[in-house]
Amino acid sequence: MKTSNFAFFFLILVFTVACQDDGDENGTETPNQVVLDDTPYAFDAQGLPPPSALQADNALTEQGVKLGKMLFFEPMLSKNEVMSCGSCHNQATGFSDIAQFSVGVDGLFGARQAMAVFNLAWHTNEFFWDGRANLLRNQALMPITDPLEMNETLDNVLAKLSASDLYADQFIRAFGDAEITSVKMGLAMEQFMLSIVSGNSKYDRYQQGMEELTESEMRGLELFEMEYNPFFPEFSGADCQHCHGGPNFENDLYMNNGLDSDAEFQDIGREAVTGDPADKAKFKVTTLRNIALTPPYMHDGRFATLEEVVDHYNEGIKASSTADGAILATQSTGLLLTDQDKVDLVNFLHTLTDETFASNPEYANPF
After folding, report:
1. Domain ranges, residue 189
2. 73 and 86 in contact (C-beta within 8 Å)?
């Protein structure tokens, strides 16, 4: 009798477990356990000063950064579902595009060279070459609807993402509910892009006393920091630090660096945003970190090599109504750089390359 009772209860237990397992497999009995996770993201400044551009109303969280990375590499954001932000901002090339102009989903070329995406947590003067996006969250959405780039509508993107359980779950983790909106998309992508940091170049290790620069690199550093002095050529430098100074090697300004005369202007730059003629042909001064990874150079990618860039500043400055005064002051004589000076300067610029950043799995495509 005892044996029979035991067998009976054992069969009921097996039947109950089997039913529960079947329910799990069909997704009908298991409640959704995905919840908000606002664990703060451990931002690593990598030895750089505390960032100045993190947004108080969009604190970085682990799940927000994760969602932003998913969206950054998500091809569903484009019309043909092939192109993502990462298509034109490749990690191996400093999150930039080494093509002069990126090609959009319809085979059209972009209007300007794709900018590098890193150390944006230290940028305080808007985004894009002309600064038309006040916040990074706004910048993140603009390429989606640009007909030269991803050429998609935000409504279509939201519909595609909303049909994905993967994204519904991740929006819950990041924002507390499954509703997918363009505002949340911008906030998440802002979080990811702000998390991308590069501060481990040979130059940084030299600054920390961990590595030595070669004789040529050290001479290049001296030229980089030394002011232009036409009266004492032997003490005249490349005078780079005025525009590319500080720990991030930029100055948060928009400048005309003598690329063209007034008659040659093809792109009015910052003026298109401000409406101020004094801003004509002025563009955002970019960081020189990882500059060797991010050719070609200038807003229109006209220079293929760093050597060409150095030649421009040494002997190619053109006068115009909005060219920077300090740059124009060198036009009559050039920077007086010798051939060896140019080699040394370029060798120093190569010390700003951060190899660990270019392969850091924290920033890599998650798919």
Report:
1. 62-197
2. yes
Q: Which helix (H) or strand (E) holds 308?
A: helix 306-315
What is the rounded average pLDDT for all residues in the chain?
92
Distance separating alpha carbons of residues 249 and 118, to the nearest angstrom: 13
- Sorted by sequence, the CB contacts under 8 Å of residue 27 that are 6+ apart come out as none
d(CA 346, CA 305): 10
User: Are residues 305 and 173 part of one domain?
Assistant: no
- Judgement on whether residues 174 and 277 belong to the same structural domain of the protein: no
> How high is the mean pLDDT in each 10-residue block of the chain (367 residues)?
44 42 39 87 96 94 98 98 98 97 97 98 95 97 98 98 98 97 98 98 98 98 96 93 95 97 98 98 98 98 98 97 96 95 98 97 97
Q: Are 206 and 212 in contact (CB under 8 A)?
A: yes
- Sign of CA pseudo-dihedral 187, 191, 192, 193: positive
Q: Which residue has the tokens 């329910």?
A: 23
Q: How far apart are CA 40 and CA 168, in angstroms?
A: 21
Alpha-carbon distance of 11 to 2, in angstroms, equals 14
Exposed, middle or buried, 311 (CB in 10 Å: 0-12/13-18/19+)?
middle
CA nearest to 174, candidates 161, 194, 188, 160: 188
| CATH value at residue 323 | 1.10.760.10
Give the pLDDT confidence of 151-204 residue by residue, as tens digits: 999 999 999 999 999 999 999 999 999 999 999 999 999 999 999 999 999 999
**15, part of any domain:** no
Q: How many domains would you assign to the chain? A: 2
Maximum distance among all alpha carbons in the chain? 113
Q: 103 and 219 share a domain? A: no
